[in-house]
Design a protein that fits this description.
alpha/beta; about 290 residues; binds ribose-5-phosphate; single chain
Length: about 290
Protein backbone atom coordinates (compact mmCIF):
# COMPACT_ATOMS: atom_id res chain seq x y z
CA UNK A 1 0.00 0.00 0.00
CA UNK A 2 0.86 3.67 -0.19
CA UNK A 3 0.80 6.25 2.59
CA UNK A 4 -0.50 9.74 1.74
CA UNK A 5 0.96 12.51 3.87
CA UNK A 6 -0.74 15.92 3.70
CA UNK A 7 0.97 19.23 4.34
CA UNK A 8 -1.15 21.75 6.30
CA UNK A 9 -1.98 23.61 3.08
CA UNK A 10 -3.44 20.60 1.30
CA UNK A 11 -5.49 18.58 3.77
CA UNK A 12 -8.72 18.56 1.77
CA UNK A 13 -7.11 17.62 -1.52
CA UNK A 14 -5.06 14.89 0.20
CA UNK A 15 -8.26 13.49 1.74
CA UNK A 16 -9.93 13.57 -1.67
CA UNK A 17 -6.91 11.79 -3.12
CA UNK A 18 -7.17 9.08 -0.46
CA UNK A 19 -10.87 8.74 -1.31
CA UNK A 20 -9.90 7.78 -4.88
CA UNK A 21 -8.15 4.73 -3.46
CA UNK A 22 -4.54 5.50 -4.34
CA UNK A 23 -3.38 5.30 -0.73
CA UNK A 24 -4.15 5.58 2.96
CA UNK A 25 -4.01 8.86 4.85
CA UNK A 26 -1.43 9.34 7.59
CA UNK A 27 -2.03 12.10 10.14
CA UNK A 28 1.12 14.20 10.59
CA UNK A 29 1.82 16.47 13.54
CA UNK A 30 2.16 20.15 12.78
CA UNK A 31 3.97 22.45 15.21
CA UNK A 32 4.76 26.14 14.80
CA UNK A 33 7.07 27.73 17.36
CA UNK A 34 7.19 31.26 18.68
CA UNK A 35 10.50 31.91 16.89
CA UNK A 36 8.66 31.13 13.61
CA UNK A 37 10.33 27.75 13.08
CA UNK A 38 8.14 24.87 11.93
CA UNK A 39 8.26 21.17 12.83
CA UNK A 40 6.17 18.72 10.84
CA UNK A 41 6.39 15.04 11.82
CA UNK A 42 4.84 11.87 10.44
CA UNK A 43 3.62 8.86 12.42
CA UNK A 44 5.19 5.41 11.93
CA UNK A 45 3.97 3.70 8.82
CA UNK A 46 4.81 0.39 7.16
CA UNK A 47 4.46 1.28 3.52
CA UNK A 48 7.51 1.62 1.36
CA UNK A 49 5.80 4.20 -0.84
CA UNK A 50 4.73 7.64 0.32
CA UNK A 51 2.89 10.43 -1.44
CA UNK A 52 3.53 13.84 0.09
CA UNK A 53 0.89 16.40 -0.89
CA UNK A 54 1.58 20.09 -0.43
CA UNK A 55 0.75 23.31 -2.26
CA UNK A 56 3.46 25.91 -1.91
CA UNK A 57 1.44 29.11 -1.94
CA UNK A 58 3.55 30.61 0.85
CA UNK A 59 7.21 30.50 1.81
CA UNK A 60 6.32 28.56 4.98
CA UNK A 61 4.49 26.02 2.86
CA UNK A 62 7.73 25.40 0.95
CA UNK A 63 9.53 24.60 4.22
CA UNK A 64 6.64 22.39 5.34
CA UNK A 65 6.82 20.38 2.12
CA UNK A 66 10.59 19.88 2.43
CA UNK A 67 10.18 18.76 6.05
CA UNK A 68 7.52 16.19 5.17
CA UNK A 69 9.64 14.80 2.34
CA UNK A 70 12.52 14.35 4.76
CA UNK A 71 10.28 12.92 7.47
CA UNK A 72 8.82 10.20 5.25
CA UNK A 73 12.33 9.09 4.25
CA UNK A 74 13.26 8.98 7.95
CA UNK A 75 10.12 6.92 8.58
CA UNK A 76 11.28 4.35 6.03
CA UNK A 77 9.71 5.32 2.71
CA UNK A 78 11.89 4.12 -0.13
CA UNK A 79 9.82 5.68 -2.88
CA UNK A 80 8.48 9.20 -2.54
CA UNK A 81 6.09 10.98 -4.88
CA UNK A 82 5.53 14.67 -4.26
CA UNK A 83 2.19 16.08 -5.38
CA UNK A 84 2.18 19.86 -5.68
CA UNK A 85 -1.40 20.98 -6.31
CA UNK A 86 -0.30 24.63 -6.57
CA UNK A 87 3.31 25.45 -7.31
CA UNK A 88 4.09 28.84 -5.81
CA UNK A 89 6.72 31.17 -7.25
CA UNK A 90 5.95 29.75 -10.71
CA UNK A 91 5.40 33.25 -12.08
CA UNK A 92 9.01 34.09 -11.12
CA UNK A 93 10.25 31.81 -13.88
CA UNK A 94 12.95 34.15 -15.13
CA UNK A 95 15.17 36.93 -13.85
CA UNK A 96 13.15 39.89 -15.11
CA UNK A 97 15.76 42.45 -13.99
CA UNK A 98 19.51 42.16 -13.38
CA UNK A 99 20.24 40.73 -9.96
CA UNK A 100 16.95 38.86 -9.64
CA UNK A 101 16.77 35.09 -9.05
CA UNK A 102 14.84 32.54 -11.07
CA UNK A 103 12.85 31.80 -7.94
CA UNK A 104 10.88 28.81 -9.18
CA UNK A 105 14.11 27.12 -10.27
CA UNK A 106 15.49 27.45 -6.73
CA UNK A 107 12.26 25.99 -5.30
CA UNK A 108 12.16 23.16 -7.85
CA UNK A 109 15.76 22.16 -7.14
CA UNK A 110 15.11 22.03 -3.40
CA UNK A 111 11.91 20.01 -3.82
CA UNK A 112 13.68 17.58 -6.18
CA UNK A 113 16.22 16.61 -3.52
CA UNK A 114 13.54 14.95 -1.37
CA UNK A 115 11.54 12.96 -3.90
CA UNK A 116 11.67 10.39 -6.66
CA UNK A 117 9.06 12.12 -8.80
CA UNK A 118 6.83 15.18 -8.87
CA UNK A 119 3.23 15.62 -9.96
CA UNK A 120 2.24 19.26 -10.37
CA UNK A 121 -1.18 20.66 -11.28
CA UNK A 122 -1.35 23.35 -13.98
CA UNK A 123 1.94 25.14 -13.31
CA UNK A 124 1.81 28.73 -14.53
CA UNK A 125 4.21 27.87 -17.38
CA UNK A 126 4.61 24.19 -18.33
CA UNK A 127 8.32 24.89 -18.94
CA UNK A 128 8.96 25.19 -15.20
CA UNK A 129 8.92 21.40 -15.02
CA UNK A 130 12.40 21.52 -16.62
CA UNK A 131 13.70 23.00 -13.37
CA UNK A 132 12.93 19.81 -11.43
CA UNK A 133 15.74 17.27 -11.52
CA UNK A 134 13.46 14.23 -11.08
CA UNK A 135 10.70 12.98 -13.44
CA UNK A 136 7.86 15.49 -13.33
CA UNK A 137 4.33 15.13 -14.62
CA UNK A 138 1.84 17.92 -15.25
CA UNK A 139 -1.84 17.38 -14.47
CA UNK A 140 -4.38 19.53 -16.31
CA UNK A 141 -7.42 20.11 -14.09
CA UNK A 142 -9.19 22.62 -16.34
CA UNK A 143 -11.85 20.13 -17.46
CA UNK A 144 -13.16 19.75 -13.90
CA UNK A 145 -13.96 23.48 -13.77
CA UNK A 146 -16.91 22.88 -16.08
CA UNK A 147 -18.67 20.60 -13.56
CA UNK A 148 -20.50 23.27 -11.51
CA UNK A 149 -21.68 25.27 -14.54
CA UNK A 150 -25.44 25.21 -14.87
CA UNK A 151 -27.42 25.62 -18.06
CA UNK A 152 -25.69 28.45 -19.92
CA UNK A 153 -27.29 30.56 -22.62
CA UNK A 154 -25.20 30.82 -25.83
CA UNK A 155 -22.03 30.29 -23.80
CA UNK A 156 -18.78 32.03 -24.63
CA UNK A 157 -15.59 30.87 -22.90
CA UNK A 158 -13.06 33.68 -22.66
CA UNK A 159 -9.39 33.60 -21.76
CA UNK A 160 -8.42 36.90 -20.09
CA UNK A 161 -5.09 36.73 -21.93
CA UNK A 162 -3.83 34.74 -24.89
CA UNK A 163 -1.86 32.35 -22.65
CA UNK A 164 -5.05 31.04 -21.03
CA UNK A 165 -6.75 30.11 -24.33
CA UNK A 166 -5.91 26.41 -23.98
CA UNK A 167 -7.47 26.33 -20.50
CA UNK A 168 -10.63 28.02 -21.80
CA UNK A 169 -10.78 25.54 -24.67
CA UNK A 170 -10.37 22.55 -22.34
CA UNK A 171 -13.13 23.86 -20.07
CA UNK A 172 -15.41 24.51 -23.05
CA UNK A 173 -14.76 21.00 -24.39
CA UNK A 174 -15.64 19.53 -20.99
CA UNK A 175 -18.82 21.63 -20.83
CA UNK A 176 -19.73 20.39 -24.29
CA UNK A 177 -20.77 23.50 -26.18
CA UNK A 178 -19.94 27.16 -26.67
CA UNK A 179 -17.38 29.40 -28.38
CA UNK A 180 -13.87 30.23 -27.23
CA UNK A 181 -12.19 33.62 -27.44
CA UNK A 182 -9.44 35.58 -25.72
CA UNK A 183 -8.73 39.16 -24.71
CA UNK A 184 -5.49 41.06 -25.20
CA UNK A 185 -4.16 42.02 -21.76
CA UNK A 186 -1.65 44.66 -20.78
CA UNK A 187 -0.39 45.00 -17.24
CA UNK A 188 1.38 48.04 -15.83
CA UNK A 189 4.13 46.33 -13.85
CA UNK A 190 4.65 49.37 -11.62
CA UNK A 191 1.03 49.74 -10.48
CA UNK A 192 -0.21 46.20 -11.21
CA UNK A 193 -3.18 47.70 -13.10
CA UNK A 194 -4.60 45.56 -15.90
CA UNK A 195 -6.17 46.80 -19.12
CA UNK A 196 -8.10 44.55 -21.48
CA UNK A 197 -8.74 45.00 -25.18
CA UNK A 198 -11.83 42.95 -25.96
CA UNK A 199 -12.12 40.83 -29.07
CA UNK A 200 -14.89 41.27 -31.62
CA UNK A 201 -16.87 38.26 -30.40
CA UNK A 202 -20.51 39.26 -29.75
CA UNK A 203 -21.36 38.99 -26.05
CA UNK A 204 -24.68 40.82 -25.71
CA UNK A 205 -27.18 38.63 -23.87
CA UNK A 206 -24.77 35.68 -23.69
CA UNK A 207 -23.49 33.87 -20.61
CA UNK A 208 -19.71 34.30 -20.50
CA UNK A 209 -17.26 32.08 -18.64
CA UNK A 210 -13.82 33.61 -18.03
CA UNK A 211 -11.17 30.95 -17.42
CA UNK A 212 -7.68 31.57 -16.05
CA UNK A 213 -5.03 29.50 -14.31
CA UNK A 214 -4.71 31.79 -11.27
CA UNK A 215 -6.81 34.46 -9.61
CA UNK A 216 -4.31 36.24 -7.37
CA UNK A 217 -5.10 39.92 -6.73
CA UNK A 218 -8.21 39.60 -8.89
CA UNK A 219 -7.01 42.45 -11.13
CA UNK A 220 -7.01 40.41 -14.34
CA UNK A 221 -10.35 38.73 -13.73
CA UNK A 222 -12.22 41.81 -12.50
CA UNK A 223 -11.00 43.87 -15.47
CA UNK A 224 -12.26 41.17 -17.87
CA UNK A 225 -15.62 40.97 -16.07
CA UNK A 226 -16.07 44.76 -16.23
CA UNK A 227 -15.36 44.79 -19.98
CA UNK A 228 -17.87 42.00 -20.53
CA UNK A 229 -20.52 43.68 -18.38
CA UNK A 230 -20.03 46.96 -20.30
CA UNK A 231 -20.54 45.08 -23.54
CA UNK A 232 -23.86 43.62 -22.40
CA UNK A 233 -22.99 40.08 -21.33
CA UNK A 234 -25.75 38.31 -19.38
CA UNK A 235 -24.11 36.32 -16.53
CA UNK A 236 -20.32 36.28 -16.16
CA UNK A 237 -18.64 33.34 -14.39
CA UNK A 238 -15.03 33.46 -13.16
CA UNK A 239 -13.25 30.10 -13.19
CA UNK A 240 -9.68 29.36 -12.16
CA UNK A 241 -7.59 26.33 -11.29
CA UNK A 242 -5.71 28.10 -8.48
CA UNK A 243 -7.84 30.42 -6.29
CA UNK A 244 -5.05 32.34 -4.57
CA UNK A 245 -7.55 35.16 -3.88
CA UNK A 246 -5.06 37.50 -2.22
CA UNK A 247 -6.20 40.58 -0.31
CA UNK A 248 -9.47 42.02 -1.60
CA UNK A 249 -9.60 39.81 -4.72
CA UNK A 250 -12.98 38.25 -3.86
CA UNK A 251 -14.50 41.70 -3.28
CA UNK A 252 -13.09 43.01 -6.57
CA UNK A 253 -14.82 40.18 -8.41
CA UNK A 254 -18.11 40.82 -6.64
CA UNK A 255 -17.88 44.56 -7.32
CA UNK A 256 -17.22 43.83 -10.99
CA UNK A 257 -20.52 41.93 -11.08
CA UNK A 258 -19.45 38.29 -11.23
CA UNK A 259 -22.27 35.73 -11.13
CA UNK A 260 -20.18 32.99 -9.53
CA UNK A 261 -16.51 32.27 -8.80
CA UNK A 262 -15.33 28.66 -9.08
CA UNK A 263 -11.89 27.31 -8.21
CA UNK A 264 -10.37 23.95 -7.44
CA UNK A 265 -8.95 22.68 -4.15
CA UNK A 266 -5.29 23.24 -5.12
CA UNK A 267 -5.67 26.13 -2.69
CA UNK A 268 -8.38 25.58 -0.13
CA UNK A 269 -10.88 28.42 -0.34
CA UNK A 270 -14.64 28.78 0.19
CA UNK A 271 -15.08 28.72 -3.61
CA UNK A 272 -13.01 25.52 -4.09
CA UNK A 273 -16.02 23.70 -5.52
CA UNK A 274 -14.17 21.08 -7.56
CA UNK A 275 -11.33 18.74 -6.70
CA UNK A 276 -8.21 18.02 -8.69
CA UNK A 277 -7.82 14.70 -6.84
CA UNK A 278 -9.31 12.44 -9.57
CA UNK A 279 -6.96 13.93 -12.19
CA UNK A 280 -3.98 13.62 -9.82
CA UNK A 281 -4.94 9.99 -9.03
CA UNK A 282 -5.00 9.21 -12.76
CA UNK A 283 -1.48 10.63 -13.09
CA UNK A 284 -0.24 8.61 -10.10
CA UNK A 285 -1.83 5.37 -11.31
CA UNK A 286 -0.26 6.16 -14.69
C1 LIG B 1 -1.02 35.67 -15.65
O1 LIG B 1 -0.39 35.42 -16.69
C2 LIG B 1 -1.87 34.65 -14.98
O2 LIG B 1 -2.36 33.72 -15.90
C3 LIG B 1 -3.03 35.27 -14.25
O3 LIG B 1 -3.83 35.98 -15.18
C4 LIG B 1 -2.55 36.21 -13.20
O4 LIG B 1 -1.58 35.60 -12.41
C5 LIG B 1 -3.70 36.67 -12.33
O5 LIG B 1 -3.19 37.57 -11.39
P1 LIG B 1 -4.10 38.71 -10.79
O6 LIG B 1 -5.31 38.06 -10.22
O7 LIG B 1 -3.21 39.32 -9.73
O8 LIG B 1 -4.41 39.68 -11.88
Amino acid sequence: MVTIVPAPSSQSVAAALAATGVGTLATPTYEWFTDDEILLSVPDFDDERAIVVGSTATSDAHVELLQLQDAVREAGARDVTTVIPYLGYARQDQAFKPGQPVSVRAMAKAISTGTDRVVVVNPHEPGVTDFFTVPTEVVDAAAALADPLDDLSEPLFVAPDKGATELATTTRDAYGRGDVDYFEKERDYDTGAVEHTPSDAPVTGRDVVVVDDIIATGGTMSSAIEVLADRGAARVYALCVHPVLAGAARTKLAAAGVERVVGTDTIEQPISDVSVAPAVADAIDG
